[in-house]
Write a structure and sequence with these properties.
Strand content: under 5%
Structural class: mainly alpha
CATH topology: Arc Repressor Mutant, subunit A
Largest sheet: none
Shape: elongated
Number of strands: 0
Number of domains: 1
């Protein structure tokens, strides 16, 4: 994997910076989990179990509570943000730069196959085809 350029680093950091902050009215464990997810959003180690361990969450109702306050389960929350960031990087790298596989890796997917499958499931097209449709229209 090659070193990502400064523009890609900037876009990734910008995406993380612009994430909505957790509501101060939410329970502390949900706020902490959201902050943890935001801080580590593009890390490959990020899983629901890792967040629960890192934030010392042992509540067996945590998944339901997280979904109640954020509108999404924790896994879906991570996935949606990773895919939205990937769309921005795909558009930014249209004329060269990172490959589709590298973009998937940069937003936290461990393989092209997992990135392609998640992207296709969420947007109805694989990333390369989605990008062609996006820039064509």
């Amino acid at each position: 994997m090659r070193q990502i350029d400064k523009n890609t680093q900037r876009l990734i950091q910008e995406y993380k910076t612009n994430l909505e902050k957790p509501d101060s009215e939410w329970p502390a464990d949900v706020r902490n989990a959201v902050r943890c997810i935001h801080d580590h959003l593009f890390d490959h180690k990020l899983t629901v179990g890792w967040v629960e361990d890192t934030c010392q969450i042992s509540n067996h109702n945590f998944s339901g509570k997280f979904k109640f306050y954020t509108g999404l389960g924790a896994k879906q929350y991570m996935l949606e943000h990773r895919l939205e960031a990937a769309k921005k990087l795909l558009i930014d790298n249209y004329k060269g730069g990172l490959s589709i596989s590298e973009i998937g890796y940069e937003v936290g997917f461990s393989s092209y196959a997992s990135f392609n499958k998640a992207f296709n499931k969420s947007f109805g097209l694989p990333p390369g085809q989605w990008l062609k449709e996006k820039v064509k229209g």
